[in-house]
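User: I'm writing a tutorial on reading structure tokens. Could you give me a worked example: one chain, its sequence, then its tokens, then a sentence or two explaining what the tokens reveal?
Assistant: Sure. Here is the example chain.
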Amino acid sequence: MGDYADADLALAAIGKELEKNLNNWEAWSAKADVLLSMGMNEIAIRCCDRSLTLNPENKFAWLTKGKALERLGKHEEAKVCLERAKIIP
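And here are its predicted structure tokens:
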């Protein structure tokens, strides 16, 4: 249960950052990562998409999206995301 308590605290902190600035691509990426760790794959993908709209060169968001898609069995889409992440320095 500690993991979920930590995740809830992280989500609360990230939420405060997004209240200040909805265009904070790093916060969207961090939120996606926390949601992925909670198994909330679909919502994590939406957060990745938001982050990538703001910063298409966000390697971490591409990786997180790829992992979430893998978990959903969307292997071809995941492969595209993971390949995209590899070419970003």
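What the tokens reveal: The chain is about 80% helix and 0% strand. Helices lie at 2-20, 25-37, 41-54, 59-71, 75-86.
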